[in-house]
Structure to design on (370 residues):
C-alpha cells in the first residue's frame, strides 16, 4: 500500500468570529472548522499526525512528499468547497444548510416500516404528502429491504412496488429519489418522475447501473457497503474503518467521474450500519467532517438504526426517536448536507432550532472590541 494522506477537521465552531476569523466555512455550510489534523498512513499504519490551525495547514502540507502535498492541496480545497444546489426536476435543493430526506419503504420486510405502505399506493402517497408538509426536501422511495438477511427482490417486483407510488408522489411536484441497486428499476423510476438515484451498492451491483446513471444525467448517491452481490453486509473487515471507507468512497467517486457522471451530481454516504460494528459506526460518525475532504456533498442515513438500540437497552425500531435525533444533530454539527430519516417532522424541527442557533452565533461576538 502506498502512503495516503487525510486532512481531518478536529476543531469545529458555530461561527468564524469565535475564532477571530481563524476558521474555514466547512463545505460551504453552517459549520466552521478551526483546527486540523494532517495524517499520513503507510501500509495501514499511521506514521505521522500534525496538528494546527488554518494558518498552519499550508506549512504542514509543504513539509510532505510532493505527491502527498498535492493530495493535501486537493483535500484542503475540497474542505472549503461550496456545493451547488441539487436540481431535481423543478425542485432546487440547496446544500448550504442541512436538508431532510424522508424514507418511504414500499416493502414487506424493511426493519422499521416493512409492510406499512406495501399494498396501497394511495396510503403510501399520503405518507409522502405528510412528510413533504413537514418539511422534507426529498422523498426516498425503495422497494427492497437492505437489512441484514433480507431476501433479494426480482426487479419486476421492485418496479411493481415503487412505480405507482412514484407516479403519485411526482404528481405532487415532489423531489424523489429511487432507492435501488438495479438499473431496470432506476430506469423505470426515472421515467415515472424520480430525479435522483440512491444506490446502496454505489453502482456496483450491476455494471449497467453506472452507464444508465451517466446517460440519464440524474444525480446519484454512492453509499459505502463492504459486501458484493446480494449481501452488502459481508466482508466488513477494516484495518481502520474511517480511512478505509474514505478510500473506498474516493474510488467510487472516481469511477463515477470516469463513467461521465458530473462531479456536482455525486453525493457520498458512509453507509452507517452496513457491514459495520457498533464501534465502526461510532468511529465514522465522530469522523464525519473528514469526509468533506472528498469534495462531495454528504448524506447520513442513521435513522432508527440498530446501533441506537445497542446503546439504549435494545430499544425497538419504533422506540429510537431520541437516538435518531441525536445522530441527526451530530450530522448537522459535522456539516452533513442530507439527512435520510423516518421521523421527518421531528428532524425538521430539530434542524430549524439548530439553524436558529447557528444564525444567532454569527452575531454573538459583534459587540466585542476590535
Amino acid at each position: 500500500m502506498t502512503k495516503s494522506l487525510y486532512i481531518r477537521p478536529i476543531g469545529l465552531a458555530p461561527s468564524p468570529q469565535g475564532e477571530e476569523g481563524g476558521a474555514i466555512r466547512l463545505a460551504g455550510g453552517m459549520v466552521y472548522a478551526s483546527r486540523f489534523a494532517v495524517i499520513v498512513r503507510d501500509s495501514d499504519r499511521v506514521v505521522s499526525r500534525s496538528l494546527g490551525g488554518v494558518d498552519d495547514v499550508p506549512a504542514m502540507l509543504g513539509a510532505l512528499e510532493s505527491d502527498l502535498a498535492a493530495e493535501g492541496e486537493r483535500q484542503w480545497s475540497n474542505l472549503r468547497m461550496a456545493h451547488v444546489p441539487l436540481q431535481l426536476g423543478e425542485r432546487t435543493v440547496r446544500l448550504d444548510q442541512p436538508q431532510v430526506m424522508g424514507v418511504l419503504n414500499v416493502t414487506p420486510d424493511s426493519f422499521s416500516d416493512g409492510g406499512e405502505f406495501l399494498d396501497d399506493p394511495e396510503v403510501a402517497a399520503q405518507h409522502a404528502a405528510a412528510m413533504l408538509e413537514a418539511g422534507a426536501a426529498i422523498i426516498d422511495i425503495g422497494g427492497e429491504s437492505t437489512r441484514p438477511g433480507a431476501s433479494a427482490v426480482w426487479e419486476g417486483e421492485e418496479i411493481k412496488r415503487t412505480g405507482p407510488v412514484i407516479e403519485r408522489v411526482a404528481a405532487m411536484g415532489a423531489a424523489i429519489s429511487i432507492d435501488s441497486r438495479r438499473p431496470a428499476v432506476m430506469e423505470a423510476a426515472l421515467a415515472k418522475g424520480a430525479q435522483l438515484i440512491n444506490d446502496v451498492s454505489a453502482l456496483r451491483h450491476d455494471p449497467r447501473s453506472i452507464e444508465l446513471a451517466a446517460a440519464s444525467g440524474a444525480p446519484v448517491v454512492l453509499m459505502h457497503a463492504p459486501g458484493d452481490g446480494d449481501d452488502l453486509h459481508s466482508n466488513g473487515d477494516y484495518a481502520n474503518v474511517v480511512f478505509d471507507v474514505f478510500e473506498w468512497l474516493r474510488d467510487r467517486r472516481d469511477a463515477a467521474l470516469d463513467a461521465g457522471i458530473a462531479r456536482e451530481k455525486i453525493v457520498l454516504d458512509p453507509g452507517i450500519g452496513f457491514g459495520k460494528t457498533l464501534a465502526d459506526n461510532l468511529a465514522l460518525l465522530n469522523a464525519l467532517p473528514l469526509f468533506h475532504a472528498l469534495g462531495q456533498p454528504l448524506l447520513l442515513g442513521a435513522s432508527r438504526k440498530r446501533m441506537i438500540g445497542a446503546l439504549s437497552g435494545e430499544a425497538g425500531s419504533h422506540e429510537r426517536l431520541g437516538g435518531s435525533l441525536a445522530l441527526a444533530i451530530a450530522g448537522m454539527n459535522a456539516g452533513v448536507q442530507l439527512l435520510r430519516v423516518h421521523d421527518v417532522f421531528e428532524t425538521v424541527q430539530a434542524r430549524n432550532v439548530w439553524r436558529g442557533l447557528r444564525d444567532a452565533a454569527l452575531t454573538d461576538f459583534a459587540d466585542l472590541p476590535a
